[in-house]
Design brief:
By secondary structure, the protein is an alpha/beta fold. It contains 16 helices and twelve strands. The chain starts with 5 loop residues before the first helix and ends with a strand. The structure holds flavin mononucleotide and the ligand CCCCCCC(=O)C(=O)O. Its EC number is 1.1.3.15.
Length: 376
């Protein structure tokens, strides 16, 4: 993928040029409860701060006079080569940001050739989203339901619709303690933002009709937040699908080892953008130990706090095989629909290329050999 030429860069200058400017601009664009929901983190925000401080704590020394006129940013994941190391993280309920929702996002991802992950709690159904970009690489993120049959049926639907991997999120067994949403008394499910997949699911609909749930909101909540979740569910998923499985939310090396024993195909080191558990170390600080125990057996992906191309550079230098982005692209969606998503993500890409060139590296492999120095 080529870095944008100067003309495109000039056009982009009217677009908020960095994450903080974009976040501020979006505050004026969407209702306050929606904005607070997206921006917010768990508790007092310690994990969110740790995520960002971890990035700030790392620096590096460039090695120059290498010809970097031809930069190759491609990576290989589950047998497919992708031109960039960026992946769209699963972010639920995109009607919170824009009426075009997930179909606009997947189209942007397809245009940029960056794999896309769809959340279980999407505003549009997994089938609708797949048909918006049928040829593009898409992963399906699973919230395990209180009913195994429902979770496994969701996976079968994703397989039938052409999703190429299942991301099982393991850090959302209960909802995080989110002060902003409590202050606003805001529940996105109550406002109908999460109707995409459950209202298309025959098992969910049957349960709803039979009075298993008090109402739709109760049904969704009981299926998203599943505190019984344990390793036996990962084993069940492993038996049910031949698709690659990624565990999202792995922070402890012991969990990484256990996941490998069960036969998962990839890990996502993540604090869920600091939205779930407060008081946790920065995701970037968890990354090196996970990379070490995994030892290249499966890909290690990373998210939480990638707000620029430089951030992506640092996560890759610490051993991530690819980086997932959450809030920045949904802010892009809120700001300017599909074009906004494309602009945010292509700016990240362009800044990554610039950083690689000025650091004297021409491939992700050589980038990964750069030593990062952490301030004590
Ligand atoms: C509004 C919002 C909704 C999210 N919904 C989901 C979801 O449905 N499933 C999931 O696994 N992660 C979800 N996440 C977490 C992201 O996948 C990702 O871990 C996080 O956003 C990364 O941090 P960042 O926002 O700092 O990039 C959500 C994040 C946000 C901001
Ligand atoms: C109360 C429903 C929770 C939906 C989960 C979406 C999510 O993961 C998030 O971080 O928000």
């Amino acid at each position: 993928m080529q870095r944008s030429n100067d003309a495109t860069t000039i056009v982009k200058e009217v677009f908020p040029v960095n994450f903080n400017d974009l976040q501020e601009a979006v505050e004026q664009k969407i209702p306050k409860p929606n904005y607070d929901y997206i921006k917010g983190g768990a508790g007092s925000g310690q994990t969110m701060r740790n995520n960002r401080q971890a990035f700030e704590s790392y620096s590096f020394i460039p090695q120059l006079l290498n010809d970097t006129s031809a930069v190759n940013t491609s990576i290989t994941l589950f047998g497919k080569t992708h031109p960039t190391p960026f992946i769209f993280a699963p972010v639920g309920m995109n009607l919170l940001e824009h009426p075009d929702g997930e179909p606009a996002v997947v189209k942007a991802a397809a245009k940029l050739k960056m794999p896309y992950s769809l959340s279980t709690v999407s505003s549009y159904s997994l089938e609708e989203v797949a048909s918006a970009a049928p040829e593009h690489t898409k992963f399906f993120q699973l919230y395990w339901s209180e009913e195994d049959e429902l979770a496994l049926n969701m996976v079968s639907r994703a397989e039938a619709a052409g999703y190429e991997a299942i991301i099982l999120t393991i850090d959302t067994t209960v909802s995080g303690w989110r002060e902003g949403d409590r202050k606003n008394q805001f529940s996105p499910i109550l406002h109908g933002y999460a109707k995409g997949n459950y209202l298309q699911d025959p098992i969910f609909l049957k349960d709803l009709e039979n009075g298993k749930y008090k109402d739709f909101v109760d049904g969704v909540l009981r299926n998203v937040n599943h505190p019984h979740l344990n390793w036996s569910h990962v084993e069940k998923l492993r038996k049910h699908t031949k698709l690659p499985i990624l565990l999202k939310g792995v922070l402890h090396p012991n969990d990484a080892v256990k996941a490998l024993e069960i036969g998962v195909n990839g890990l996502i080191v993540s604090t869920h953008g600091g939205r779930q558990l407060d008081g946790v170390i920065g995701s970037l600080d968890a990354l090196p130990n996970i990379v070490k125990v995994v030892g290249g057996q499966v890909p290690v992906l990373f998210d939480s706090g990638i707000y620029s191309g430089l951030d992506a550079f640092k996560a890759l230098a610490l051993g991530a095989d690819a980086v997932c982005v959450g809030r920045p692209y949904v802010y892009g969606l809120a700001y300017a629909g599909q074009t906004g998503v494309e602009t945010v993500m292509s700016n990240f890409y362009d800044e990554l290329v610039t950083t690689m060139q000025l650091a004297g590296v021409s491939s992700i492999e050589s980038l990964q050999k750069i030593e990062l120095i952490q301030r004590g």
